[in-house]
Every structure is written in C-alpha cells, then in structure tokens.
Amino acid sequence: MNNSYKTERIDTVIVGGGQAGLAMGYQLAERGLKFVILDAHQRVGDAWRNRWDSLRLFTPARYDGLPGLPFPAPRSYFPTKDEMGDYLESYAARFGLRIRTGERVDALSNDGQRFLVAAGDMRFEADNVVIATSPELVPHIPSFASELDPFMIQFHSLHYSNAAQLQPGPVLIVGAGNSGADIAMDVVKDHPTYLSGRDVGHIPFPINGFTATFIYPVVRFMFHRVMTVHNPIARKVRASLEAGHGLPLVRVKPKHLAAAGVERVTRVAGVEDGKPVLEDGRVLDVANMIWCTGYRPNYSWIDLPVFETGNVPTHKRGVVEQQPGLYFMGLNFQFSASSGQINGLGRDSAYIAKAIAGRKVHQTEAVAA
Which residue from 57, 251, 277, 350 puts its CA 20 to 30 A from 118's CA? Predict the structure, then answer.
C-alpha cells in the first residue's frame, strides 16, 4: 500500500452518513461494536439541506424519527428539509456516533482477507462494510438535452433551490412525479409553467387532513408488516421501482396543478431548432427547463462481483452472502415497502447489526481455536 496514505484498521466502515448510515451506527453502538461512518458532505444532514427550499417530508413527525430518538416536533407536523437535516446532525451528536465528514469514498475492494476502503488520502481496512448511500447518485438527463438552445437555462432537479435560479420566461419541467409536481407548484408563482410526463396517479386524500390521521397507521402497518419481500405483490412493486417507474403523487394533486395554472403536456420526445418537441409534435418555446427525470444507479466505485443486471445489488435483507461482511442499508424494498423510508430503517439496521455481531463472535472463536 502506498506509504503516502494514512491507513486505519477498523471493524466496520459505514459508507454514507444520511439517515440509513446513522441508524446503522446507532445499532452498532448499542452492541458495543467499533465503527466509523464516512460521509462526503461537509456537515451531517447536508444531503437534506441541499434540496429545494420548499421541500417538506411526506410523512408527519411521528414517523420521521430514527431508533432511539423521536423527531422533536408535534406528531402531525410535516418537517422541512432543513429541519430534517438538523435532526440528523443532532442525532449523531446525541449518541456520539463516530462520523468523518468530507470523506468521499472512492473505491471499495477486498484483498482476500478484509475489505479495503479508499477515501481521499485515507485507507481503511475493515472486516465489515455497510453501504448506506443511496444508489441513485447520478442525475439522469436525456442525451438530446445537449441539442437545446445554449441560451436556455436547464438543470436537473438535484440542483434546483428556488425560482431565483431561472431567467424570465416560460419553464418546462420534465418528469411529472412528486419532485416535478412539487417544483412546478413552486415556479408557477413567477413563470408560465409546463409539466411534461405521464400521469403517475395520486393519493386520493390530503396527507395533512383529518382522513389521513386514520389512514396513516393502516398504511404504516401494510408497508412495514405486510408488503415484505415474502409477498408476491410486494415483489412486483419492487420490480416496478427498480425499472424506474415512479410512485403516485403524494402532496400535490392534479387539481392543485390545474388550479395553480400549471399546463400538463405530453412527454418530451426530442429537440427541434433548439426547442423541446413533445410526443404530440408540439414545439415549446421556453426559456428554462428543469429535468425531474430521476437518477441512475452508480456503484462503479465498488470493485466486487455483487450486482445483478442493471446495477442492482444481490442481497437478502441487506446481507450480501457471496461477500461475507458486506451489507447494504436503505435500499427500496430491502425487506419491506418501509425499508426506503425513515421509519423503516430501525428494523433493517437492527437485522444487519445482529449479523455483524454474530460474524464477530465467529471470528473471535476461530482465532481462539
């Protein structure tokens, strides 16, 4: 190993300091296991703080806490993205979780004895690695976007903060899922706004209304207890999500978009004379485009044979059996429909922590023998 690198030996490295990584750290700390959390952001919670200004969670505070610490707000309150970021930062401090911010992991491999984690000028040798970063790290923008008028402002929703980033004139938002609908409601206040994409459906009741207070517990039970990987319907939903199909609209409904003046249009098919062309042949003369077209998995930094077609990790409840000591946290449908949600992380992290603790016992017994 290059002597210019600083090398540290540690039992477990957790890659990612978001809610999944922090829940994992909590469970390991509860069991007295040594670990370090590596996070690319400069401050715990920045993955939330860096999202668009008007974003609020889709679940009320009573469902937004990680294991050991309820979210500090009234049970029916919907936290802002900054409040969620601050909660994660206070969570890490409350439990004294060892986290190194500003440490982007560049590579993960295995030398046959242990895992090797490269992060800048640091090298970590670990018996276990938990990958708790979202797999959706690369914003997806169609290749024909490069053919659009260079004077048009265009960027992915990942980089959207507020309408002040836009120039005067109409806005085309591509992608009619939850992020597209939310951002459309934001920009239509100051700009003529088009929303392009298929109708993904919507939840038929307001999430902050009287009806929701009775429905949330039922949905929570279904997502957490019924819609697991053992359920054939749940497996079909998971396959649909892995294929890139979006979820129904949660907060913003079609009637809200219509009332605000957002014009729904068909999908964008290409470019003509620097302008976007729709599937119905209509050419839109817009000054701004926001791509709410999702992300694509990027595990290129992992040099281990643990993926299926489409960069989907092979695992059972987050445990990668063909690479003992490797785990994933925070995946959609890791075990149930709640796995990709904040309130589902406690069970999944406890399961993986138990596996890590059991592995350590076997290793200790093997050395003693």
Answer: 350
Q: Which residue type is seen at 70?
A: P
Residues 6+ apart with CB under 8 A from 88: 18, 19, 22, 44, 45, 48, 66
pLDDT digits (tens, 9 = 90+) for 200-220: 999 888 888 877 788 888 888
Mean predicted lDDT score pLDDT of the chain:
92
Please calculate the CA angle 144-264-152 and round it to the nearest 5 degrees. Answer: 40
8 Å CB contact between 101 and 44: yes
Structure confidence at residue 242 (pLDDT) = 64
Structure tokens of 130? 């938990």
The CA-atom distances, in angstroms, between 260 and each of 11, 248, 252, 290 are: 54, 19, 11, 18
For residue 132, the model assigns a pLDDT of: 96
Q: Which residue has the tokens 């990612």?
A: 16
The answer to whether the Cα torsion of 253, 255, 259, 261 is positive or negative is: positive
User: Stretch 265-283: mean pLDDT, rounded?
Assistant: 97
Q: 88 vs 310, which has greater pLDDT?
A: 88
State the pTM of this model: 0.93
Q: Please list the residue range(s) of the chain that carry CATH number 3.50.50.60.
A: 6-135+299-368, 138-203+248-291
Task: Write out pLDDT tens, residues 79-133.
Answer: 999 999 999 999 999 999 999 999 999 999 999 999 999 999 999 999 999 999 9
Angle formed at CA 250 by CA 169 and CA 316, multiple of 5 degrees: 120
Structure tokens that stand for 230 in this block: 């053992």
Total residue length of the chain: 369
CA distances from 309 to 95, 233, 317 (A): 38, 21, 19
Q: Are 197 and 294 in contact (CB under 8 A)?
A: no
In CATH terms, 6-135+299-368 corresponds, of 3.50.50.60, 3.40.190.10, 3.30.230.10, 3.40.1390.10, to: 3.50.50.60
